[in-house]
Every structure is written in structure tokens, then in C-alpha cells.
């Protein structure tokens, strides 16, 4: 096993690029947010009873709130990024005519 922090550095690059395409920027914080968003989404889809149980535990209410905030922030950033991409595409289309 490698001694550096990442088991698969190439996968880290994939996650970083995904974060950039999804949110417009791949800062360390955004990459961590996207990792949480991806994992929670996946767990919710493959083991909904586990998520339901976890959400019902009183000690997890702050974490549940943080996850909800991350979901909302990623959604907001994604919408902003889509708008920028559409605007850029429109500019490119106008330049080509």
C-alpha cells in the first residue's frame, strides 16, 4: 500500500474534476462537500432503512442539518455553474456567426 494519504491518486483527480464540473470550482472544501453529498446519496439509495435510522437518532440531528445544508449549497452552486456554462455557450455561438 502507498504511504501517501490517497489510496488512488487518479481517483482523487476524478473527484476533483467532477466537483469542478458540478460546482464550477474544485476547492478542498467543495471536494469534501461533494464526497459527503455522493456518499450520502449512495447510502440513501442502497440502504434507505440505514439512513432513516441514522436520521432518527437524536445525537445525529446536527450532522443531519449539516448534510441538508451541503445538499442545498451544492444544488445552488450547480445551478450557478449551469448558468455560467449556458452564458459561455451563448457567447461562443454568437462569435461563430
From TrEMBL:
Taxonomic superkingdom: Bacteria
Coiled-coil segments on the chain, per record: 60-94
Keywords: Coiled coil
Record's protein name: DUF2573 family protein
